[in-house]
Design a protein that fits this description.
By secondary structure, the protein is α/β, with parallel strands linked by helices. It is built from 9 helices and 13 strands. Helix 4 packs across helix 7. The model has no long low-confidence stretch (mean pLDDT 96).
């Protein structure tokens, strides 16, 4: 908290992935986050807040269902995009009139926010590359770009392993902008409203065609060739000459090991990685397939 208050940035553990945090209302510190990551300035960042009571302070004309979602599902891996109050700096919103807010379900993150106030915290990696799920990932990705006042907090491995669900809450019902660990049934039960389909005009983090990408080429279909890597459920056999990176049994296990496997493929020098993603219709399966699909785009 002292580092943040002094204008530093902090590698911050959350339940999803590690974020690179700066005090949200410190323009120069947030600008450093963009610079360290190599992140385009028109790409919005998520503001991490202490709890549901923050929704009204950062948003304006917040729909009642959005407040119900915050009351029921925060802290948790859910980001709510709401109309931004006039006082919200547009360097946080990518120039849009909306702001993304989340209360993370991690004791370290919550303690930092309680002490330092709301923080802007995109993932703590170079823009477009694989998100970090351990403190050592953060150090490897951006350690050479940090300064003496900056801190990386080691909160262990992130248990969820993929980024938060993002909901567009600017209309009469929420729309999913990015899939994560929160199921549609949970959203509808907590919000008291059905999730809308269709395309939203709101830009959200992680929406570019190519994202979450390792150096290795990622493949979604076909058979692994000798010398390549494989990430797949245990029932899928490992062909001769192929390196098995993980054998997750459920979508939850798959999400938890996904980014580790992408990083391991690069660490051992694989040129190609085949991923057999789960497809059971769950939110986590859709999140995994979304991340892998973007990782495969070159």
């Amino acid at each position: 908290a002292a580092a943040l208050s002094a204008g530093g940035v902090v590698g911050l553990p959350t339940e999803t992935v590690y974020g690179l945090a700066a005090v949200a209302l410190d323009a120069s510190a947030v600008r450093r986050v963009f610079t360290i990551k190599g992140r385009p300035l028109d790409h919005p960042v998520i503001v991490h807040v202490p709890g549901p009571e923050s929704l009204g302070g950062w948003g304006i004309d917040v729909p009642a269902y959005a407040q119900r979602l915050a009351n029921s599902l925060w802290p948790g891996p859910l980001t709510l995009v709401v109309p931004a109050a006039d006082s919200v700096p547009r360097y946080l919103t990518g120039g849009q009139d909306t702001v993304g807010l989340r209360c993370p379900a991690h004791p370290v993150a919550l303690a930092v926010i309680d002490a330092a106030g709301p923080v802007a915290a995109p993932s703590a990696n170079r823009f477009g590359q694989v998100s970090p799920v351990t403190a050592s990932d953060v150090l490897a990705d951006i350690g050479d770009r940090l300064e003496s006042q900056d801190v990386i907090l080691d909160g262990g491995a992130c248990p969820v392993g993929v980024e938060s669900t993002i909901l567009d809450c600017t209309g009469d019902a929420p729309r999913v902008l990015r899939w994560g660990a929160v199921e549609v049934t949970e959203i509808e039960a907590a919000g008291g409203v059905s999730v809308k389909g269709g395309v939203s005009g709101v830009r959200a983090p992680g929406g570019l065609a190519s994202h979450y990408a390792p150096r290795a080429a990622v493949h979604l279909v076909g058979e692994p060739t000798p010398g390549s890597g494989l990430l797949a459920p245990a029932e899928i056999a490992t062909p001769d000459g192929v390196t098995r990176l993980a054998s997750p049994a459920t979508p939850r296990e798959f999400a938890a090991v996904l980014y580790r496997a992408l990083r391991d493929a690069d660490a051992i020098g694989l040129d190609d990685l085949w991923v057999h993603a789960p497809d059971d219709g769950s939110a986590l399966s859709m999140a995994i397939r979304d991340r892998v699909g973007r990782a495969a785009v070159r």
